[in-house]
Sequence to fold (295 residues):
Amino acid sequence: MTIEGMETKIIDGKRIAAEVREEVRLRVEKLRAKGVEPGLCVILVGDDPASQVYVRNKDRAATKAGFQVETVRLPADVGQEELEQVIFERNANPSVHGILVQLPLPPGLDPEPLLRALDPRKDVDGLGPANVAALWRGQDGMQPCTPAGCIELLERSGVTIEGRRAVIVGRSPLVGKPLAALLLNRNATVTICHSRTQDLARVTREADILVAAVGRAEMVRGSWIKPGACVLDVGINRGEDGRLRGDVAFAEAREIASKITPVPGGVGPMTIAMLLSNTARAAANLGGLDPDSLD
Ligand code: NDP
Fold:
């Protein structure tokens, strides 16, 4: 049995992310009309080149969607307390609705106290303890952007989640674990695999929805996939040739899967789109408006 029939379909994350960003832009217009000027603060510590690119892209996309964006750049040797102070100030600033600390932090800085310091209502990355607890309790809260983007891709591609067997390879707090909670909250039966999982290919072959979030280029082979499964590839791996590859061997997998995300252009573009969506939601909540009334 297949989920969506045998025809292989590429899930176009670029198109879906553009759709989400346009919806957010319209919500921002409505917020403005109601007197809420949505603001996002992005905190970048140190000069990690990848983080610089991510922050620049977030700034650009948020500005384009109509947000006021403040990017706080701090040197790698900033003190932990000074960094916490930056967060406390933004927590107290009513024109900031979303705060994001770009991770990873340089060595010597601990992200945990920062995540605890964030006002949960402004924690638009959804990684602070209050939002993690809400997620696992099935309550409303800010949902981590990449996993939320995966759900959006499934739902907008017409993939049924309820009752399906979902297998996630990877158990990081950023992707694998929160995605498991999101799928569970939508009534999937969820298995999380990791580096100690025995006979991994046997487990992945049971998946109607298979998610690879490992960080190992083309680890998931076509033979690991159940015919007709939907495959989401979260992995971003840059090869020596400079090419980006996912965690899934795409050419093999597309022959077996009913739907599959490419890398690049699959899950990747969704992360920023969901950040913008979370920030608009936070702005509505903090402005005393019902976020759903903006649609
Ligand atoms: P982590 O390194 O934090 O976690 C990787 C997970 O994969 C761990 O749970 C690890 O298991 C598991 N793993 C490692 N090797 C194996 C193996 N041989 N078999 C089974 N499981 C294995 O990575 P992230 O979750 O942060 O990211 C995963 C990938 O997704 C990366 O390529 C990253 O670049 C990409 N990514 C993409 C994003 C986007 O599209 N916007 C956002 C975030 C990440 P264990 O816990 O046992 O060590």
